[in-house]
């Protein structure tokens, strides 16, 4: 059994999210997703459109996701990996190199983004329609 863990906000859930979760799930048998809480996003200076509980419900409904946990701080990843017995930490390539320090407790994998879509671009596109 191989357990994979990832983290993200997953706001305005879109095709890029689905493809990332599918590719991560293909790396193992279990995919655990740490979903950033609203409070954590505020501390990061990031405004999400959808509240945490909605984003969790969407993630839980995704067939690739086995379990959703709250992401409440940057430094919780090491503890989560050990507690969940994760074999692989995977995340989008836009984070390349940022989590290499976790390689002493699990394999770290950076996956390419889905071209042509991002939450930032989607948010901008929607806002420009109403300006």
Q: What key phrases describe this protein's structure?
A:
5-stranded parallel beta sheet; 131 residues; globular; alpha/beta
How is this structure best described in words?
The chain has helices spanning 15-25, 38-43, 52-61, 77-84, 119-129; strands at 3-8, 30-36, 67-71, 88-92, 107-111. It has 131 residues and is α/β, with parallel strands linked by helices. The chain has one domain: 3-Layer(aba) Sandwich (Rossmann fold), CATH 3.40.50.620. It has a 5-stranded parallel beta sheet, sandwiched between helices. The protein is globular, with a radius of gyration of 15 Å. The relative contact order is 0.22. The model has no long low-confidence stretch (mean pLDDT 92). Residues 5-123 form the Cytidyltransferase-like domain. Keywords: Nucleotidyltransferase, Transferase. GO terms for molecular function: nucleotidyltransferase activity.
Mean pLDDT across all amino acids: 92
Largest sheet report: 5 strands, parallel
CATH superfamily: HUPs
What percentage of residues falls in helices of 4 or more residues? 25-40%
Strand order of the largest sheet: 3-2-1-4-5
Q: Could you tell me the radius of gyration in angstroms?
A: 15 Å
Q: What is the β-strand count?
A: 5
Structural class: alpha/beta
Query: Regions with pLDDT < 50 over 5+ consecutive residues?
Result: none
CATH topology: Rossmann fold
Organism: Lutimaribacter pacificus
Protein name: Glycerol-3-phosphate cytidylyltransferase
Keywords: Nucleotidyltransferase, Transferase
GO molecular function: nucleotidyltransferase activity
